Amino acid sequence: MTLTKTRLADGTWEGVLTGADDAPPEIEARHGEQVLGGVEVRALSEGQGHLVRVPVPASLIADGVQTVLLCDKATGARLASFALLAGDSLDDDLRAEIDLLRAELDMLKSAFRRHCQETR
Questions:
Q1: Is 45 helix (H, G, I), strand (E, B) or coil?
Q2: How confident is the model at residue 86 (pLDDT cuts 50, 70, 90)?
Q3: Which of 103, 66, 58, 67 is nearest to 86 (CA)?
Q4: CATH for 2-86?
Q5: How far is it, in rounded angstroms, from Cα 69 to Cα 54?
Q6: pTM summary value
Q7: In which domain of life is the source organism classified (predicted)?
Q8: How many CA atoms lie within 13 A of 72 on its CB side?
């Protein structure tokens, strides 16, 4: 079985599960030792697989990196995962540094373009 993310929007992670039997498998979402509720698995059109929807609880929105594992409940096999990143603890995170550098580069580009227009 393969679970491929399609989107994360409006507090819900969505993906398409392929390679499963016609009966929808039970998918379990775990954050640490906690099992998250509300996971939906429903069949798509014939041969298209299953739609998997996982509501992201507000309690997962916290400082740092929160990782959710999606597993086949019957076998325990990991099918997918996603991470939420938030808060002040990310100040030293490389992605936050890259985003800051991009913002500063955009600011410098604007200032340079303005300078070039003024000196014409």
A1: coil
A2: confident
A3: 66
A4: 2.60.40.1130
A5: 11
A6: 0.72
A7: Bacteria
A8: 16
